[in-house]
Design goal:
- The protein is mainly beta.
- The protein contains 1 helix and 17 strands.
- The strands form 5 sheets. It has a 5-stranded mixed β-sheet with strand order 2-11-8-4-6, with helices on one face.
């Protein structure tokens, strides 16, 4: 299972979501399921790192990236493509538990897809008085985003969409992944008839099928579709 191309996104999510003192952890950070060989189920392990019981709930979201390859934090679309069992769990101190993720859609998956598994510590009822039940709230202290990727084994392919000048000798090129697999952008460059342009923005995360990506760079003019060739170059 190859998690290359997903790791940068996980690192940014982890730093944004986890508090200073983590009460639990979830592994692996990136779960890749090879659906081309029928791998439709996966497991993550949650470990309670604290000295108190911890209640954690799980939800799956679509992984939405913006045009620059950054996570779109405003596009929080919950996904029903997975059955999560258990979806809520209470873990005793210093113990581990396994959570199953099952892809629930019956139709054959024809393109690569990626999701975010959101694991959040929740309030836990811990006491009651003689008259009525009282829930003593424990503040939410930590949450995780883990990446769940479904890979078909097919190839990605990006095609030129448009180009324009941005001012200050900066140029934009927009490309779209028209293939069925994710397209890696780590070492991507643009080759013209006279130049190889290496210093591109927008190379943070893979481009998923159907997604567009904006690349910006210094150049003297916009480019045309006939002169743009996307190539990989070594570091």
């Amino acid at each position: 299972m190859n998690s290359r191309g997903y790791v940068l996104l996980f690192c940014s999510l982890f730093c944004a979501a986890v508090s200073v003192h983590a009460n639990f952890k979830v592994e692996p950070a990136v779960l890749v399921l090879n659906v081309s060989v029928g791998e439709m189920n996966g497991f993550v392990e949650i470990e309670n790192l604290s000295k108190e019981p911890r209640a954690v709930e799980f939800a799956m979201f679509d992984r939405a990236l913006d045009l620059d390859g950054e996570l779109d934090r405003n596009a929080k679309v919950k996904s029903n493509d997975f059955i999560i069992y258990p979806s809520e769990i209470i873990i005793k101190p210093n113990e581990k538990a396994t959570v199953q993720l099952k892809y629930a859609k019956k139709e054959r998956l024809r393109v690569d897809k990626a999701y975010l598994l959101f694991s959040k510590e929740v309030l836990i009822p811990v006491g009651e008085d003689d008259e009525e039940e009282i829930n003593i709230k424990i503040p939410v202290t930590v949450s995780y985003y883990s990446i769940v990727a479904l890979e078909t084994g097919k190839e990605g392919k990006i095609s030129f969409v448009s180009s324009k000048a941005l001012g200050n000798n900066m140029v934009e090129v927009i490309a779209e992944n028209t293939g069925s697999g994710r397209y890696l952008v780590d070492n991507l460059a643009i080759q013209t008839s006279t130049d190889i342009i290496r210093n591109l923005s927008g190379k943070k995360n893979s481009i998923m099928p159907g997604q567009r990506r904006r690349f910006t760079f210094k150049y003297m003019r916009p480019l045309t579709s006939k002169e743009v060739k996307f190539i990989y170059v070594p570091d």
